[in-house]
Model the fold of this input.
Amino acid sequence: MMGVRKVLKNGLCLGLSLTLMLAGTSCGKDKTAVDDYGFESDTVSGDVASVNEPEAESYSEAINSDRRSLTEVFGENISADDSFTIGGVTAEFNLNYKVPEVTSINVYEGSLFDNNSDIEKQVVNSFFGGTEKELEEIKYVNDSDYIPLLYKYRSILMFQTLGTMSYSSTSISQEDAAEYLSSIDSSFDKVYKWVDEANYYIHMYEGEYNGNRYGMIYSYDTANSQRNIFICPISVSEYFPEVDAKTMFVVDQQSDFGSENLCSMSEADIMNEAGIVLEKLGLSEDDICLTANPNMSIPEMGLLNTFGREETITDMPKLVFVDSNLMSAAEKLNISNPAGRTYAYKILKEQQNIRGGQENSEDVNFSVNGYALYLCSEPFSDKVTPQPLSSFNRGSIFYTDKGLYSVDISLVAEIDNVVEGG
Done:
């Protein structure tokens, strides 16, 4: 167990907290304390290089002692680019933080999520209620079964291959990029198996939740102490028997497609239901906060990416299901709703691999059905735009008129204790 003391450098402890977590992953389950603004209260001793402490009192103490708000101390925004190398691990970050107007802060004492098979069993059993079974492998079966699960598994493998969640064009070969971005159809011959490697594992399950059949991918990245949970219907055709849903888009609340949202759940209902699901997945209300901000989704390599947008989003984005291939749907989406915002997409069924500019005669029909909710780490809140690889708990949870549609979360730290006004 590592001892801890205070570390601050140029006031950029949001970035440093990531580095400390990465550096400590080989030393067991270490506790750190982070305040509402991301400042570490302790410094790692041992092999980690020391950083000189400022002679003045900490920012947290300054704010709490004279009741100055954080905006009076730092201004309205904090932005920075930097990198650190600690314990042989280098972390780079680009920080952008919208400073809240508050006069007191809390201190959050947390631990990195560790690799615990007992917790995995509890999570799986709690969600599926005893109906779960292990899947030794998943592969292409037909045009609708396991399709999103195959895409997700491939995404996890790609990140393991890269060794980092970097999205620059130099991080991946053209051959790998082509494979990653290709459509999964009847020609897809890969078989994805239950994997237990030294640096990561990928486990798969199938079971029932509220009368629907779901699949779960439960994976763990040892280098980053990162637990990932992905849940979606085994078959979108079973989930939506009355709709030919091939592609799904997440769009802003103001987007207008000439039809009402089929999901009648209120925001309060969705947040309550999401809280129940996340509790089954092992998260407490101290570990996360719920938000409408799609920047908190897990970044995916693909056509659309909201990462880094500086905007305030207060209304939950809505889900649009489309009965055509991705490119046709995206083109029609732009024509039908040019002023709207599209945050993300998911391929739900086998579809033609049509690229932009190719002739396409498909008719396109939209069905607005559901809402998107997101989560992030409580100490950081959604005022921080996270990096692809970060110390944030983050993810998304989608609901339709059928209830839960999907969960996609990445977990790094759990909160053990909260000291109010610390």
